[in-house]
Amino acid sequence: MLAVRERTGPAARAKLWKMPTGLTDPGEDIAAAAVRELKEETGLDCVFDKIICFRQAHGGLFGRSDMFFVCLCKLAPEYEQRLKEGGDFDLLPQEEEILMADWIDFEFYAHQGVWKESPLYKEMNRAMLRAAKKGIYYSNSGDDDNNESHGFVAKDLEVGFRPGRNTIYVSSKL
């Protein structure tokens, strides 16, 4: 999996590998934020596919609730083509925030002390591992009958009763 190590903060002090993460900008959809954050932290372009799982927490900063979405993204087509042709590409960590970015073994990632000691993160990692072990079937693979992947896909749709569009996230199995 693609993971990063931060320059500062609790994750940096623990030398923890984590997935690229960040906050949504005002008015930004989850799918757009996932693509933007991955690009900012690793230099890679990607395409949002689906939400694997999410968690909700309360009592955060300013007494606010917080939602964290684990998103499955796939490499942009130009990278996939380069890999098929035997080529490679560089990861470009964001200098201000990210110490390093790399492809790491998922089992190694999931068994870091902080993750393996937390029931919440064990469940989150289990969901991610299930997605990886079943083989990552992207939503647009065209083989809907044999697609065993689960998650929430984004659909940007007209509201209809007033001008504008909203993004709805629905099960990829429906």
Automatic annotation (TrEMBL):
Q: Keywords, A to Z?
A: Hydrolase
Kindly give the InterPro entries that the UniProt entry links to this protein: Nudix_hydrolase (IPR020476), NUDIX_hydrolase-like_dom_sf (IPR015797), Nudix_hydrolase6-like (IPR003293), NUDIX_hydrolase_CS (IPR020084), NUDIX_hydrolase_dom (IPR000086)
Q: Which residues form the Nudix hydrolase domain?
A: 1-127
The record's annotation in Pfam families points to:
NUDIX (PF00293)
Q: Which GO terms label this protein's molecular function in UniProt?
A: hydrolase activity
What the record says about family reads: Belongs to the Nudix hydrolase family.
Please name the PANTHER family in this protein's record. FI03680P, NUDIX HYDROLASE RELATED
**What is this protein's name?**
Nudix hydrolase domain-containing protein
Species in which this protein is naturally found: Stephanodiscus triporus
